[in-house]
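Appendix B, Record 12. Input sequence as logged:
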Amino acid sequence: MKVAIVMGSDSDLPVMQEAIDILKEFEIETEVDIVSAHRTPEKLFDFSSNAHKRGISVIIAGAGGAAHLPGMVASMSPLPVIGVPVKSSNSIDGWDSVLSILQMPGGVPVATVALNGAKNAGILAAQIIGASNSTVLDSIVAYKEGLKTKVIEAAERVKSSQQEK
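Logged structural output:
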């Protein structure tokens, strides 16, 4: 089980690092690369067409601006693709990236997370893998239980601080 994480340029790495980090937490191997839909179309074709042959289970693709990378990957790969819209310096408040990834034609699905939402992309990739891997599924269950515990603890702190006033 391996997740490929690709991005349009190295300026996307600070956002995409969150997907890498959460997948490491779930002990899922990652393959990270820069694949530009516009500047390296041959590399894009090779990556997308062959990822499943290299043992990749899910692809996370992040891009800013016109953000064609996730859709182009999905058009050539049989694997699930999760798109991460990245708010870039040439972006229109990130909406151009969101819509470029979200508005895919029928037959070419791309799961889309929130603007700069790479952490959720990593969690979703783990959940996809967890559907057929009980070890990963157990890790996700524990992670979500941890989220619940954090909220309960925060609620108790808020209640206690309010009672003291």
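The radius of gyration is 18 Å.
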